[in-house]
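Example record

One chain of 116 residues, shown exactly as stored in the release files.
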Amino acid sequence: MKRASPDTRAAARLYRQFREAPARRAKRVRIDVPDAVAVMGQVLLIAYETTHDGQVQLYAHEFAPGSRPLFCAGARRNQAFLIGGRYRVTERGIVDYGPGGREVKHRGHYKVVRKR
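Predicted structure tokens for this chain:
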């Protein structure tokens, strides 16, 4: 049996912390990173649906000014990227950081929009 890579173990740990359930399987995903992308603009907010606490929930995160990543696109199909910015995905979801590396707290930072 092949041993999981450090990246796979770290991803499984983050999944378990955020989703509060163990990852049942790992999936190898091939990513074709282009040599150049078109910068479409800054990402002001992101919304995503996930299962948390055993329920499907819709989360929204509004990036703090200065923490916003760039929304970039490759020329091929299915090539959308968040590049740069000062944020990290944690067990609490997306967390913004300031220039000094301190967590930025701001209005609209993170919220559950809807529970199903």
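Notes: The two ends are 39 Å apart (CA to CA).
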